[in-house]
Amino acid sequence: MKPNMHYADLKDSYLFYHIAQKTKAYLDGHPGAHLYRMGIGDVSLPLCDAVIRALHEAVDDQADPGRFHGYMPECGAPFLRKAIADQYRSRGVMLEDDEVFVSSGASDELGDILDLFDRSATALIMEPAYPAYVDANVMAGRKIVHLPSGKENGFLPGPDDGSRADILYICSPNNPTGAVFGRDQLKRWVDFANENGSVILFDAAYEAFIEDPSLPHSIYEIEGADSCAIEICSLSKTAGFTGTRLGYTVIRKALVRNGMSLNDMWVRNRTTKTNGVSYIIQKGGAAVFTEEGRRQIMENIRFYKENAKILMEALDRIGLWYCGGKNAPYIWLKCPDGMGSWDFFDLLLHEIQVVGTPGEGFGKCGEGYFRFSTFGNREDTAEAARRLEKLLGHC
What we know:
The chain is α/β, with parallel strands linked by helices. Helices cover 39% and strands 15% of the residues. The chain has two domains: 5-47 and 293-392, Aspartate Aminotransferase, domain 1; 49-290, Type I PLP-dependent aspartate aminotransferase-like (Major domain) (Aspartate Aminotransferase, domain 2, 3-Layer(aba) Sandwich). Strands 2-8-7-6-5-3-4 form a seven-stranded mixed beta sheet, sandwiched between helices. A four-stranded antiparallel beta sheet has the order 11-12-15-14. A two-stranded parallel sheet has the order 1-13. The chain is globular, with a radius of gyration of 21 Å. The N and C termini lie far apart (57 Å).
């Protein structure tokens, strides 16, 4: 038996595994030390009351023969698909319910969705990039086109002749940089995709953090996107479902390539490869889209954005360049004094016990930059900001 030899082309260790190994080594040498973790973007607030109540009600349903649910529809429960579509419709995006597909989370879907594309398809990935974009395509043996971005364009690159590829990854608000594409910038990418027959994979996992009314929450707010884009969303950061696992994908019926409807293809894929998401989890997810649920999750998001404000104010006083934070849960900063990103990681870990994410782990364009997550608790965030300012006040 010959294994998939493309796995040999992957980097030796996944970014966050390498961070975990370094922090473990530090704690082994410093028993009892407290680390201020602003690296991996896991939430710290619990699920909101509306969701918890819905989860309990769903568990009770499973104990009642008259309300019990077995296998769920593979593409999602009708009540949740409608709730999600209604959310889009409230923003002027006229989705049909069956253009929404319920998933177990954006990370799973970003890997699974590649089933829709031939292995000969090329993938364009804007760097710095979420590492799973690259790794999923390496595993599939695809050619990857790396599109660099940097401080000079606000980490928001536009298409050019070198951008031609079959699959175009766009993450907005971006992980890791926190940068958000404006309408005109997205329109350029939509026009480019339609002209070249490409498909945009639009990762909108952090759309709920956008507060600027001029910025789009969905690629489908852009004219022409119906025929060239797939949108992948998550309730992990929106509603704290990191440990509960729920997301959704939108594929418009207008998206057709070589005479094949990608919506129909995804229905066939899901009915072949999944048995649907748990009824209990979907009931909890539906509560997110109620008036009460929306109000409560926005309270949590405001908490995380206050964390971002605390960090940004400290960076302003230090004098370091950064982007993100305002419309995203990540802050992307320039390392001081020309330091490399892993050197800066080691400095913060060993000198002030603050853990972030080295930019190099997100691609070559990330070298010399560093990411902070704002999902931690308030006390740790405030103390980490104080320590950063004390350590780097000379910058």
